[in-house]
From TrEMBL:
Key words of the record: Membrane, Transmembrane, Transmembrane helix
Entry keyword annotation includes Coiled coil: no
Molecular function GO labels: chondroitin 4-sulfotransferase activity
Higher taxonomy: Eukaryota, Metazoa, Ecdysozoa, Nematoda, Chromadorea
The UniProt record lists the keyword Electron transport: no
Name of the molecule in the record: Uncharacterized protein
Pfam families in alphabetical order: Sulfotransfer_2 (PF03567)
Stretches assigned to coiled coil: none
Cellular component GO terms held in the UniProt record: membrane
GO biological process: chondroitin sulfate proteoglycan biosynthetic process; positive regulation of response to oxidative stress
Superkingdom of the organism of origin: Eukaryota
Membrane-spanning ranges: 28-47
């Protein structure tokens, strides 16, 4: 005996008993497969990613951030290895990635790197010029809005993962990089600042990591010294364009609002100072679930 359900607008669902013939089974199988296919298509195009946030080792709930860009989307794991010393590095776009690439190339093959007269300040890749996201180069509102829209689409729907967007990779939150969604606790985070004291502190941190992994002292000293002098051609922290962008961010609440929605969780996951954020995001407004 098989059961099917029919909708009755007056009494709700009614269960009707029917005798299952061979033709009935085929018919119901076709109906079932059709429904399953429709659900599969819906799930493919409209599946939304779920994510969990841990703060100080505890799961926390957020409210009022439903339209924020979620963390831990595995989008751009640019991993570099020095296998002899069991070291993996990750170059994060626009976060002194060229310096990290150069360091890892040196660690991978010191002899070739030095024989070719390379240095840590070399630029090995080029970036194409042009209007970002078809925005006027001075229209920061347009660029930030389109950045938010494309990152939101990537985070919401799985089918956007088929092709990586170069601009999105450059603008994506740090939590999207390096397979952080799986192995964040295994990484030594190297906080590299733009001024001399910050770079000096970072170079010391890296030197300790390299020494721990068994690299020779002469090489470690060279890297530590070279990190504090010179800059790559990609460096932008002193440029007039950056200063103008920072001015627009300070003065335009629309731009700041979108930037908070894009990068807020980076300030939760990583040990960044939140005093640069708007005041409502500087406090711990999340809730810890009751156990």
């Amino acid at each position: 005996m098989a059961f099917t359900h029919f909708w009755n607008k007056n009494s709700g669902y009614m269960r009707m008993g029917t005798v299952a013939t061979g033709r009935d089974i085929k018919k119901y199988c076709c109906i079932f497969l059709t429904i399953s296919a429709c659900l599969g298509i819906y799930g493919f195009f409209y599946y939304e990613n779920q994510y969990t946030i841990h703060v100080d080792g505890r799961v926390v709930n957020f409210t009022g951030v439903e339209d924020f860009i979620p963390p831990f989307i595995n989008y751009y794991p640019d991993l570099l290895v020095a296998p002899e010393h069991k070291l993996i590095g990750c170059a994060i776009p626009k976060s002194m990635s060229q310096l990290i690439i150069n360091i890892m190339c040196l660690l991978y093959d010191e002899h070739r790197f030095l024989t070719d007269n390379n240095s840590l300040n070399d630029t090995w890749t080029t970036e194409s010029a042009g209007n970002c996201f078809d925005c006027n180069k001075k229209d920061l509102r347009c660029f930030v809005r389109k950045t938010y829209e494309i990152l939101k689409n990537i985070s919401d729907y799985r089918h956007h993962f088929r092709e990586m967007d170069g601009m999105a990779a450059h603008a994506a939150p740090l939590t999207w990089m390096c397979n952080f969604e799986k192995d964040l606790e295994k990484w030594d985070l190297l906080m590299i600042g733009s001024d001399f004291e910050e770079r000096k502190s970072s170079s010391l941190h890296l030197a300790n990591i390299l020494t721990r992994q068994g690299f020779n002292e002469t090489l470690v000293d060279k890297i530590q010294k070279d990190m504090t002098i010179g800059e790559t051609a990609h460096s932008t922290h002193k440029s007039s364009h950056r200063q103008e962008a920072e001015r627009q961010i300070r003065e335009d609440p629309y731009i700041r609002d979108l930037l908070h929605k894009i990068y807020f969780f980076d300030y939760v996951v990583f040990p960044f100072k939140r005093d640069v954020l708007d005041k409502k995001y500087q406090t711990n407004f999340w809730k810890v679930p009751e156990e």
